Amino acid sequence: MPAPVETELYDVLGVPPSASEGDIKKAYRQKAREQHPDKNPNDPEASAKFQELGAAYEILSDPQSRGIYDERGLGGLSGAGGPSGGMDAADVFAQFFGGGAGFGGGPGGFGFDFDFGPGGPRRKRDDVIPYEVTLEDLYNGKSVKLNMEKNATCGTCQGSGGKKGAKPKPCAKCEGKGWTYTQTQISHARIATARAKCSDCNGEKEKIREKDRCKRCKGEKTVKEKTRQEIFIEKGMSDRQRIVLAGAADEEPGQPAGDVVFVLKQKPHLVFERSGADLLTTVTITLSEALLGFSRIMLTHLDGRGIKVTSPPMKVIKPNHTIVLRGEGMPTYKRPDHKGDLYVGLEIEMPDESWARSVDKAALRPLLPPKREDVSPLPAIVDEVDYEEADIEEVRERSFPAGANFFDGVFGQFGDGADDEEEEDWEDEEEDDHNFGFHPAGEPECRPQ
Ligand SMILES: [Zn+2]
Ligand SMILES: [Zn+2]
After folding, report:
1. Among residues 267, 289, 322, which one ends one of the domains?
2. Does the global pTM surpass 0.90?
3. Cα of 253 to ligand 1 centre, how many Å?
4. Which of 88, 143, 192, 448 has its CA 20 to 30 A from that of 263?
5. Strand 278-286 to strand 306-310: parallel, antiparallel, or no bridges (unpaired)?
6. Does residue 433 sit in helix, strand or coil?
7. What is the domain-level CATH number for residue 89?
């Protein structure tokens, strides 16, 4: 199979383009469960994401529409050439990604061009551009200057494309209809006949004779116009938030110019994970710090500040201990002085064998808590077995090739012998963990500039 021209739909489901039908179905079910709007009441985009997911599945679960998508992308599924089932789904995508295409000179412009054919709805065309930002950008705010190029209505002919007084003539190729028939092979056995916009007159039914064309735009009606735009990444903006430059997209004569919409895409951060207004990170402390306490600069924040923390006197820090640094989370959008919290998981680094060899164990023993006794009551039969190190991850993969959730449930049994009550707590934690970082609670919104 040649590489697909687009992978957006696969990305939505989180599967590679080589995924089997079963993989796609499985991924969809899992994602649908996680992303159901009822489960994400704090995510204002939950229902949009859920719909997007459904649309992606609708296209990829049908071998025929999937084949067309792989070969020609979403564009191949739109219009009359696609299978009847594909149209709605492709249309849903049109809403999410805007109908625009061909953003000139922009950074990685993309968009799906939906041709509704003659008589179809003509909508304002927005250019939707994903824009990658770092967590530092979203914490500190940033202004970005961009050189952009757009099609602007030609001022010389006022968008008529012709010299003064020139009258257009009906297009010869489409005989003034604006469209022609095209045939599309959708499988080796089926050929679809579709109406497509006439390529000669661009669907406008008429053309201006060569000699009557406007000198400046050469009959194109629009000219390339370079503009310098500035967008502001404001403190506290969220992943997927949209920044709208109203009317900055290509102009077409007789139509309002669309907007250029930047959709922020937050790059994963090496140190911090974001969950709405809160941040999460892990810091490693030594055994000595866990037992005797610490007072030190633990981390460098997103604005470069050192963050110093002192543990309370007599505090013994246990494994999986988490602390919260109030007001050290992300700034709130539009209220940057109001910040969320920073959660710090403390990981205790145990000393290694070279340390163990270097210390006087006899001197250390009385300083440490006493060793454990045998299990009680004492079993009647006792076997002596060998001590051998193992990799629990590997055991789980080998023994339970089921879903990841299943392994998580098993972990309790392999782990510290948690009783039922503890296991239930653990389940809840997993739920929280899961939401951490994936569903920002901030409010993405459209904002004209
Ligand atoms: Zn012109
Ligand atoms: Zn024509």
Report:
1. 267
2. no
3. 11
4. 88
5. unpaired
6. helix
7. 1.10.287.110
